[in-house]
Write a structure and sequence with these properties.
Elements lengths: L1 H8 L16 H12 L8 E5 L5 H7 L5 E6 L2 H12 L5 E3 L2 H5 L5 E3 L10 E5 L12 E6 L8 H14 E10 L5 E2 L1
Parallel strand pairs: 1-2, 1-6, 2-5, 6-7
Antiparallel strand pairs: 3-4, 7-8
Length: 183
Amino acid sequence: PFDEVVAHYRDLVADAPATFDRTPHPEDVALREALLARKRATPFERALVTGCGVGRAVFVVREIASSGVLGLDSSLARLRRARNIAVTLGPFLLPLDEASIAAGGPREAPIALHRLVRDGVDFVAGDVAALPFCDAAFDLVVTTPDALRGDERAIARAEAEARRVLAPGGLRLAAGPDGRFEA
C-alpha cells in the first residue's frame, strides 16, 4: 500500500525537486469538491468514510467536520499507514520517483503533516457489507470507490449498510462511475 500512500499524499510533499509530480489524487479532489458543494451551516459532527484505504479521504472529510471522523477499511496494512500518518510527530517520508532522484534530489521527502487536520480522526478494521455500528450513528457517510468493489450483491450490501448507519437528515456521498461523489 505504500504506492497508494504516495499517490494520495504526493500533493503534500515538501522540499521535492521540481520534477516531482505534486498533483492531488483525483478521488481526493472529487471528494473535497462534493463536500464543499454541500457544506452546511451546521458542520457534520459524526462522519464515517467506508473503504478509507490509507486515510486521505478521512483527512479531507475532517477539514469540514466539526469533530469525529472514522475511517473503515478491510485492509490492516492500509489502516496501519493511515494511523501512522494520523499520529506521527516527526517527519513522515515518502519515496520520490526515479526522475526526481536522477535530478539530484533526495530519495525521500517529508509530507507537510501540518496541512492535515489529524485530531478527531480514527480508523477501524471492518467489512463495508456488515458495518459494526448502530443504526443512524453518523450524520455524514462517505462511500469511496474501494468500498464499492465486488459483485453486484456485495455492492448492494455495502450501499444498504451505508444507508442504515446514516442519521435522518444526514448526507451520504458515494463514488459514482465517473469518479465524482454523488449524494
